[in-house]
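hey can u run this one w/ 3-isopropylmalic acid bound, need the structure tokens asap thx
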Amino acid sequence: MKKRIVLLPGDGIGKEVMHSAKEVLTAIAEEYNHTFSFETHEIGGAAIDQYGTPLPETTVDACKQADAVLLGAVGGPKWDNNPSHLRPERGLLGIRKALDLYANLRPIKGFKNLLHASPLKEEIVSGSDLLIVRELTGGIYFGTPSERRDNGESVVDTLAYTRREIERIVDKAFQAAQGRRGKLTSVDKANVLESSKMWREIVEEKKAQYPEVSVEHVLVDAAAMKLITNPASFDVVVTENMFGDILSDEASVLTGSLGMLPSASLNESGVGLYEPVHGSAPDIAGKGLANPVAMILSAALMLRYSFELEDEAKIIEDAVQSVLDAGYHTADLQIPNGRKVGTEEMTKLIVDYIRTLNASKCIASCYY
Ligand code: IPM
Ligand code: MG
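ok here u go:
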């Protein structure tokens, strides 16, 4: 299979972990006879420094031509006081909109030997395996431009959705639930917001099309509570942009390992942007300490969702699990009696597993 992949390392540890993902994908390409070509472009703070904008046209054009996009992370203290149109985050929001990446999938599943690192008791968090399906290109993030009024004495942000925008994300979530445990939790604030009432109506309308999926509606405040008290009760959670932003950060710490969580943002034609849930971690950037696993697992999601290479995606996921099982971990994690390694060594262990696995298969199938 031949694919063009655009790499947007961005800022901070984004650059280091992107390097790791590229090494893993190169190993997969060599071992399983694929041709992946890589093209690197700037986004976020790095793009502001080089081109005076967080999202240069050349970056958008390259992403539009690509079969898939991998993104590291954007942001850092250097740009914190910039005016809002010159903040690194604008680059991220801009590329989501430019590629119409309306469906953000954030799977959250604990790794066996890391559950002790959760802030929750192991018996509460064990068995948690949920998928947050967050609407990503509408809502309050993209309302009519926010403005300060009355000489700065008042301010307006608007939360707008079209029926079609809600329908497509709800469909995506139902389909995801069909392929999992068949339970959909729709999260809204229908006791207050008109947009949430419409959201709830649409979920109710759609459920007839997916009879095998059971549906519940939960208000966002109650959902935030339930994520802590009974996380294992969730399967697929679907929600609008800002609720999804907040709940996915909350859910990401359940497993005690923010550095492990990947995400996929998809449009209607299957082109996707894949990025870790964690940020640019400026405090450890450039030190070789970053955990590359979330980025590497994001590359696995790319193989699964954009290229339909399920076997190769699984191999990467197995490689990560085996390396953790062997006790290796980066500085952000603790494994009892484990061995702390840096970004490069962690990557090499994962790459070695992929290469050895393939070699042993060949020995088995080629000679016996
Ligand atoms: C995320 C991030 C972004 C968001 C920021 C960096 C704009 O928090 O991907 O969750 O709010 O969507
Ligand atoms: Mg967020």
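Residues 363-368 have pLDDT under 50 and may be disordered. anyway lmk if its weird
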